[in-house]
Amino acid sequence: MDARLTFTTGPDAPKSFKYLMAAGQALRESPLPAVTQELVALRVSQINGCAGCIDMHTKEATAAGESAVRLHLVAAWREATVFTEAERAALEFAEEGTRVADAGQGVSDEVWARAAAHHDEEQLTALVLLVSFMNMVNRLNVLTRQPAGDYVPGQFH
């Protein structure tokens, strides 16, 4: 499969893509735990059907030492016993933040409260930005049919 656009080539793509990747790097450096970031990025990407981001975030998480069991269970996190309460709150937040059209209200007060019980204001800000960022990147990749499978951990760092 060939991508409809390649973000790293063309007269305008490199400049805009560079800014996009800088935003992603800033999020990686946020106080939200790296493991939580990868789990959230993976879950948002699963919901949106973004193969490129699923490829990237499973490989990044694996390279960081995440277990295969936890990665396989992200799609069914509600029934899985391998996630902390803080991770579960972040995954729930990510789902409601991604399915805004389905929920009709965005993130509910109850889900926000559960996330706030486990994350301070700076981490919550990072969580909001991460969910928003991942939804944007997923859409860019899905709209342009970016292929998956060749990502190398650290490729965009």
TrEMBL record:
Q: What InterPro entries does this protein map onto?
A: AhpD-like, AhpD_core, CMD-like
Gene3D superfamilies cross-referenced by the UniProt entry: AhpD-like (1.20.1290.10)
Identify the domain of life: Bacteria
Q: What is this protein called?
A: Carboxymuconolactone decarboxylase family protein
Q: Which residues form the Carboxymuconolactone decarboxylase-like domain?
A: 14-96
| Organism per entry | Streptomyces ramulosus
